[in-house]
Amino acid sequence: MHQPISEAPTLSGRRSFSRALDDYLSVRSRTLDLAAPLAIEDQVVQSMPDASPTRWHLAHTTWFFETFVLERHVRDYQPFHPSYRRLFNSYYQSLGPQLERARRGTLSRPTVDEVIAYRRHVDEAITSLLEHGEPSAEMEKACSLIEVGLHHEEQHQELILTDVKHALGMNPLRPAYRRTEEESPVEADAIRFIDLPGGIVEIGFAGDGFAYDNERPRHRVHLEPFALADRLTTNAEYLAFMKDRGYERPELWLSDGWDLLQRERIRAPLYWIEADGQLFEYSLGGVRPLVEAAPVVHVSYYEADAYARWAGARLPAESEWETAAEKASVDGNLLDSGWLHPRSAARASARDASDDDPGSRLPRQLFGDVWEWTSSAYSAYPGYVPPEGALGEYNAKFMSCRFVLRGGSCATPGRHIRATYRNFFSPDARWQFTGIRLARSS
Amino acid sequence: MHQPISEAPTLSGRRSFSRALDDYLSVRSRTLDLAAPLAIEDQVVQSMPDASPTRWHLAHTTWFFETFVLERHVRDYQPFHPSYRRLFNSYYQSLGPQLERARRGTLSRPTVDEVIAYRRHVDEAITSLLEHGEPSAEMEKACSLIEVGLHHEEQHQELILTDVKHALGMNPLRPAYRRTEEESPVEADAIRFIDLPGGIVEIGFAGDGFAYDNERPRHRVHLEPFALADRLTTNAEYLAFMKDRGYERPELWLSDGWDLLQRERIRAPLYWIEADGQLFEYSLGGVRPLVEAAPVVHVSYYEADAYARWAGARLPAESEWETAAEKASVDGNLLDSGWLHPRSAARASARDASDDDPGSRLPRQLFGDVWEWTSSAYSAYPGYVPPEGALGEYNAKFMSCRFVLRGGSCATPGRHIRATYRNFFSPDARWQFTGIRLARSS
Amino acid sequence: MHQPISEAPTLSGRRSFSRALDDYLSVRSRTLDLAAPLAIEDQVVQSMPDASPTRWHLAHTTWFFETFVLERHVRDYQPFHPSYRRLFNSYYQSLGPQLERARRGTLSRPTVDEVIAYRRHVDEAITSLLEHGEPSAEMEKACSLIEVGLHHEEQHQELILTDVKHALGMNPLRPAYRRTEEESPVEADAIRFIDLPGGIVEIGFAGDGFAYDNERPRHRVHLEPFALADRLTTNAEYLAFMKDRGYERPELWLSDGWDLLQRERIRAPLYWIEADGQLFEYSLGGVRPLVEAAPVVHVSYYEADAYARWAGARLPAESEWETAAEKASVDGNLLDSGWLHPRSAARASARDASDDDPGSRLPRQLFGDVWEWTSSAYSAYPGYVPPEGALGEYNAKFMSCRFVLRGGSCATPGRHIRATYRNFFSPDARWQFTGIRLARSS
Amino acid sequence: MHQPISEAPTLSGRRSFSRALDDYLSVRSRTLDLAAPLAIEDQVVQSMPDASPTRWHLAHTTWFFETFVLERHVRDYQPFHPSYRRLFNSYYQSLGPQLERARRGTLSRPTVDEVIAYRRHVDEAITSLLEHGEPSAEMEKACSLIEVGLHHEEQHQELILTDVKHALGMNPLRPAYRRTEEESPVEADAIRFIDLPGGIVEIGFAGDGFAYDNERPRHRVHLEPFALADRLTTNAEYLAFMKDRGYERPELWLSDGWDLLQRERIRAPLYWIEADGQLFEYSLGGVRPLVEAAPVVHVSYYEADAYARWAGARLPAESEWETAAEKASVDGNLLDSGWLHPRSAARASARDASDDDPGSRLPRQLFGDVWEWTSSAYSAYPGYVPPEGALGEYNAKFMSCRFVLRGGSCATPGRHIRATYRNFFSPDARWQFTGIRLARSS
To answer: How high is the ipTM of this complex?
Structure first.
């Protein structure tokens, strides 16, 4: 999950510095909670260039506050260590050279303890700022940057989990991250498509709270009538695609996807394991039998797209998804639920299942469980203006060869997600909690 | 230029088989005309994986007619050579294994003469089919496939030129493809932006003639008001970007573009040469002094996008481009003009230059000169349905990580281009005649 | 085959300039004879980085005479073309930048005709020099360099054949280079080991004629008693190794060799083809049934070494080979025989087959057929002094990670080989005519 | 340092099991001592494919005893963990699949604590075996394997240091491994060459103690008269080579070495640092000013060879080195000295410096300080027979493209080195303590 940076909405006036401090301390401590089940060793390794060591996430999120808040808005602030500026810069080119991303796992220092001390140093400085700062334009700016930093840190909370899952899941010992509850097998009800009328709709963020710049401006889009699946695609459905030789039929695949299959010998979702003729899945709770009714997860855009083609459907455009989701309440199997794995959809209610009033029906599982690949290449909304300055420097820098994902996953903090939220990844990415919702043109 | 395959529009009834034969013979002979200035050696080499030897183009376009027309619609057709089916298949996975693309230049056989004999063999069979065929549903199908084959061959005519340009241009001797006329320096008039109102517009092909499936269906799009530059970006303007350290400022670049610059040490458009403090450009007519008023050409999407950002503008969406172009007549510096290089814009007429009736003004250089990068990722239009069968197999298979280009270039046959035409390339491609037209949100 | 450059032995006094001219014209014309069966297209392609296009060999050997003889020893010599100095320099770093080796096949110019004209230009200048030159120290130096150039050209004659074999053999059409005679199957007689006493021996060149610097100085070596196979390893014997799962048993292989097998999926000698359960071999005469009694050819050092280990033997040291060969006359299946493929050993004569006088027996097939891998890493002889100046610049530059091969092959000019001759290649090379002779410690 | 495995010399009869146990416990505890200064994080990282994490060394050396001693010679031995067999196998192909070497640093489990427990488990089993075992042929075999295992472990002790040095030295923070003493600057006395007569000499191991199989058999070699430098090449001398543009003159370099320089932009020994116009060197004690009289260290074979050529000398053959060293006592700056860095040569004694009796003079610094590159490609001695069975499986598997190094370094346990010891590395390796001693042909 890359980090599009937000426009800075005014903060003070909406809540006091003390409210900001509460938020700050709560988000910061949750990050440490996520690292708590890990051995020191787990926080050091990097299992592929796209993933980062936990220790790096702990330090980089701290670097963000140090660089954008403390060094700019606190007079006489003493940086914790002169080299950290370079070591923990992720990709802000204008802030100087960075350590090559793929080499993050080759560094043993600073140690975890030193990084914790770094966090403490910065936390104390931010606490002091928020406790003693006088209302002013500069203070308002600082608070706004702190808010950005917290959303940034929440993105890294999800990455800590997905990166650690990759490191532990690639280890032949396949250790669990922590004990988690296991889902009892249920039966999925048949998938249904909910018709939506299209026409001129509005998408994008326009409210008061926080949103990233890439969700703005709210704007009009014309949609043809379409239909959206009322739940996520399940493991059982995906298995039917595999049994129908889905991975061997080039006509189902985008050209780049087909090449990827051959190059990396991909034949199943990332964490599936076949042993003694049975299917298992590595989860953050360890290796478990595959739950057929649960959503398929850890598939690339190419797999999602090929599956949809095989199923006689397609992936939704992000505008379609947002239109369908904007009336839904933001709840679901998110990080806060503690499952750390997608779950089977709750059975549709009688009313949902009836066709009495299809217009009022809402798809299930819109938020949480898995990030849903959309068919939309990630790009700027019409009228988009990147924010000024260093933070805004790279707002749109990932706007090529990425696809938009919507809805958050079982590793996304509930406070972090909303209907207008645009996540984006390269179409070959599989280590995030990514899954499939089908759509159709009516 | 990849080859999206068309829906098969009905042909007979519109024109006789004899008209089809005229077209066939005329397109086929132009292909040979394009190879005529080349030495045998020039037709063998492959200077990079994306480019193919001329000889391969000559054979592959022939393979297309043999495979899709003759083997299917002519009883007892005798293939010219049993191995050619594999050797000259480009990427149709369902038709069996192919020679690895990057190895096309390692093959010395069949020789050019053998390929010419292959062309003759197939031409005779097609001629016989069109001369002796009786009207029937199958014959209609065959004619329709022949028409597809001719458009396919026209795409390869452009590729012959761009691929040969690369092979000769990378050769330290930098030989010319053939003598071409050289443009006299002129002064470009100032760029102007033409305002367009947006709203609900329709784009896509809906007429009678030929169009590829990816141009369909015609559909509605909502556009915000926007403005489009009335001519292409010139070498002089691009040079100003370079002098302003455009290639060294990361904040101007997409992340993948910045990585590309570093990896391939890109510091100027592909064929620019600096010698003795002066700038030259390799053209199909050989090395020549850079013409400042001529359109900049052979830039990647990343360069086009970075330039636009530097210029305080952006690239147009393909829907914006099409809306602006649909009233324009399809003429310009296309292959038929024989320049084989983009030319400076004709000066705007007095009326164009006045602001009397801006609504009636049309941008210059919409067709020909250079393919114009749009900000639109190549994707399916709403309601798009891929055609059935082998030819339709891969209609959409390039719909990831490609950007749409519009308007044709100085190497595009005039008969081949139209306002709805969607070309697409990877954003790092630079060997096509690709250039820049700016846009702005009003 | 890289080109170790010779010390310049005095030439004049031994033969007249006219004799030198005869040699010159005869070697030069044989090079063209070797290219004669080829289409122009065949002379352009490069099927892998280690191989070069024929056209490049034709030009590079000419460049050698131009650079080292004409530019240095002929006043007012006019180079044929100013860019050829760079285009056709192989690896002489001190003579300026070179074209990257792997890109030789991407160049279509100069054309074959232009290269022939280049040859003619240089041949005329050399002819004129040898016809009109007056005896002098400089002329002596020039003659000596001409002699080096001829030996250099003979090395490239062999490379023309091996490089063309690779290009044609990798082509799915597998065309023949030219018609050659086919060997009738014979039965190989059992392999016998000839005992040799060891002790202090002398190896290296010390005579009057031409030899490369790397064959000097002649020096003493101590050898333990050893035995040498009296003929080359045959296809049938190698096949037994393969059937015994030789390619699947890591304990038989050097570590780097095992890695190579996995990386390149090597499971047989380079040009073996299995079809319909039968074994064939691509030869310069085309695809033919494998001749069981013929020497196995186109194996890497790793394959030769693994085979020897499997056979309970080892490869000979180069000093062992030379000691055994120095009494043998230099004849065998060399380029001059015209077979262009290794042949089965002539049956041992009655006397050879008896054990009456083993000391007097000589191994068969020492010269020609295949280059024999030795266990000796290529390195400088004790007391070796590289020659002065540009030609001597790189005499020893390949003395790491190369192994010595002895005896010449069916593609080596007979005039070129001798018992002290040291060829050397990387242990993974397989496109030369390389084979196996076993040895044992007594 | 790869691990050639020894022939198993008879052990019992020479010393009691209790002596073996003392050795065992002492070597095993030294390994832990070497890890003691490290943070857990330092024991996890892998800074390049050639280096391994400390934790892996701790486990792999333990795996060796478990696999070769306990599983074979102790009835009912319970392996500590079923997966460790694969995880900690280095390269014994016949013992099953291994984890890809370059991925060792991606594993966080087993943790350091778990590895320590593994060591303890195995140590207890070995202790029990040695305390309770009854003399028998099998027990003798077990003792012999234990001895091999201890020498194997000593090799890994050196690797722990060199691998950790690389990981810490590549870290931008450049932390010290531990505090070490710093050498006071001294002046080197002029280099002198000691003449040696050559003739028939014997090299190789023939005594009673332990030696690896690759040191056998002792055999005769003929040497020409030669001279050997009486001390190692210093930093000051190497600096003179650099100032003379040594890294920019292709004529000084082997071809593969020159390519390496360009590819990896090598311009100085591995750990040299230039800052503010001054030269520093990263050592295990941290960054320090370069000591001019100290031996140059961390150079590749290519650098050693180029330096020698520049200096008008050459590298010694391994037989020359051994002949010169066999009368010397095995002492010097080895691991036991605790310096962990090469030191300046002690000044030659008056007698050494005189020319009275040159025959009796011995070169200084033969043992310890740096491994000395020889010009000898690593290969089997005449008459070499690899030992039977799994341990012997790969005795010679590195006998291609490696060069022999002699004499041990400041990281080699004193007990481990001897005059006949043959270390070997790839010619591009620079992370070992490798340096230069010059030789000359007399």
So the answer is: 0.93
